Amino acid sequence: MANFRTLIYAGMALMLAAAMPAARAEMVIDIIGGGANRHAITIAPFKDETARAGGNLTPVVRNDLSLSGEFRLVDGADVPNVPFEPADLKYPLWQAKGVQSIAIGKVEAAPGGQMTISFRLMDIAQHKQLTAGQFTVGPDRVREVAHTIADMIYEAITGQKGIFNTRIAYVLKSGRSYQLQIADVDGARAQTILRSKEPIMSPVWSPNGRYLAYVSFETQKPVVWVQDLATGSRRAVANFKGSNSAPAWSPDGSTLAVVLTTSGNSQIYLMNASGGSPRRVVHSDGIDTEPTFTPDGGRLLFVSDRAGGPQIYSVPTQGGAVQRLSWNGGYNVSPRVAPDGKSFTYVRREGGKFRVVIQEMGGGDRYLSDGPDNERPSYAPNGRMVLYASEAGGKSVLYAATVDGSSKMKLAVINGDVQDPAWGPFNAP
To answer: Which of 32, 323, 379, 406 to pair with 187, CA 20 to 30 A apart?
Structure first.
């Protein structure tokens, strides 16, 4: 099954069947905490952005940078004369406010109903330009440009690639209906790509961001599907006797790891991503599930109860000796490896709480969340944040936390619960 807890949920869900009430997928971002050494930055309102871009430009940039946990947004409303060009900048005034860098820009009309958005990022202490960009787009792409500007600022300051133009996938449960949705990383522009009266679970992105693999119970049993996000077409790639669950993509996108019960209990198999005959990777008398590839594709991390309770193990993708990775606590599930392969995150049950943990490969581990009911952690593609599902106010919500635990944002869904989050790759179409 998808994981040890969903072994129970899935059995209950098979009995559910009812009309689907409408569900709203509006998310409200709530940023909690913040690192002590955040970069102080001002995003000045761009010239004519309200008239030409609907005022939906610099607020998105500010929001993106805030949720990363690495920036402290400084309000410049009390500084006279909003700067739009480097020549407009009164550097001593901004330096006196403690601002380290400032983004300035303008929006100009372009032929064909389009607009040209220009921006510069200036270093206040050195009076020099750090990065700049110019984009000619239609009104429907303003938000995309805002995310791109945030990515460019993030990379210029941190040296790391930004994640604000990536997307997330998750399952929205409302009443007895299930929707598989994708959205911007801040929860905006949510789209439903599959709606069902039966459970949907375990969505995972292909490495190129074009496909989602997931488990659907629409045929009254768990089947692994792959859906093309560009065309909407989909196909059942694992529909063998018994249960088909917990898909995971290989780093090159050619192979899926799946969990099948054709041998009697849940075991891990590899198969072509377009379907075909599965090859069994591990053999045990217990339940082996939740496989995930290491970035080099050489190993699988997975969960097994072969030692009496669910723990995390590793095995070569070609098969071979199995290595146990989790030793603290009696219940450790849902492993996901960091993009650099140096650590992995998972969920540990301890004292009645399900908490997100990060473990350095070959080293110690530390808590990223304090529960009470966190699940399905997923790394951002730059490895700087972890997305996971939790509970707040009696509802399931999503959190994205920095890997050092200093800051996190809450994405609250109205009239629905969010489950099984998965952070998409860079440059998703």
So the answer is: 406
Is the model's pLDDT at 287 over the cut of 70? yes
Largest CA distance in the chain: 73
Residue 10: phi and psi, rounded to 5, are -65, -40
Query: ∠49-409-160 over CA atoms, to 5°?
Result: 70
- CB–CB of 238/256 below 8 Å? yes
| 385 neighbors 65 (Cβ within 8 angstroms) | no
Residue 241: how many CA atoms within 13 Å on its side-chain side? 4
| Cα–Cα distance, 193 to 295 (Å, whole number) | 27
Specify whether the CB–CB gap between 227 and 216 falls below 8 A: no
Task: Copy the structure tokens of residue 176.
Answer: 């007895």
Residue 78 structure tokens: 């009390």
> Does 55 have pLDDT greater than 90?
no
Share of the chain above pLDDT 70, in %: 90
- Give me the amino acid identity at 65: L
Q: What digits encode the pLDDT tens for the residues 302-322?
A: 999 999 999 999 999 999 999
pLDDT of residue 395: 77
d(C-alpha 102, C-alpha 128), whole Å: 11
Q: Mean pLDDT in the chain?
A: 89
Q: What is the full DSSP assignment across 75-107?
A: --TTSSS--SSGGG--HHHHHHTT--EEEEEEE
Answer whether 315's CB lies under 8 Å from 282's CB. Answer: yes
The pLDDT of residue 35: 58
Q: Please state, in angstroms and as integers, the Cα–Cα distance from residue 272 to each residue in 173, 228, 266, following that order.
A: 30, 16, 19
- The pTM assigned to this predicted structure is 0.88
How far apart CA 353 and CA 167 sit, in angstroms, is 28
HSE-up (13 A, CA, CB side) for residue 244? 25
Question: In the Cβ-directed half-sphere of 312, how many Cα atoms lie within 13 Å?
Answer: 27
What count of other Cβ atoms lies within 10 Å of the Cβ of residue 100? 18
| Main-chain dihedrals φ then ψ at residue 87, nearest 5 degrees | -65, -20
Query: Nearest 5°: CA angle at 408, between 402 and 413?
Result: 130
Strands 39-43 and 101-110 turn out to be parallel
With 90 as the cut, is the pLDDT of residue 152 above it?
yes
